[in-house]
Design goal:
The chain is α/β, with parallel strands linked by helices. It has one domain: Toll/interleukin-1 receptor homology (TIR) domain (Rossmann fold), CATH 3.40.50.10140. It is built from 6 helices and 7 strands; from the N terminus they run βαβαβββαβααβα. The longest helix has 15 residues.
Length: 171
Amino acid sequence: MDAKGRAQGGDSAHRFYISSPYLGLKEEREEAKELITRRNHAYGDSYGGSPDPLVETCQRDVRASDHYVLILGERYGTRRPEHDNKSVTELEFEEALEAGLSLHVFVLGFVSNSREGIERDPEAFAALEAFRRRVSDHCVPVDCSNQADGRSGRQVFSEAITALAANPPLK
């Protein structure tokens, strides 16, 4: 695996696009990347430098993937006025739907970074709630909150990503 999450050799590796609002979920994104690459799969996300517009880069990167991983916490994400004020994350989700990618959604019941990780804008919070409902219309998200058996939400998240990387759906 190289530093950008690309598999070295062989075509059996899967490519996972990791999508989430960036602020407040940096730790979780990094953990997902590590767990995916540990199984010799590749990941993509669109936060590296590109001369192309951000949304265009994201859409291209989503389409270049085999699977779409969405991590949702308590923030809607950066809204784009030129795209009906939808967040970049929601636009990535729409692209994954259009491309027919397998969807893997993790709804976090914990916040690692409360300063950046909690939505404070009422309009954005309403958009987040509507987005969550929309996501649930297309798949059953993994509930990564504290469990009755004593597992923490973070542990549930780690176990679910590990299981996905160990046994990804067919391409």
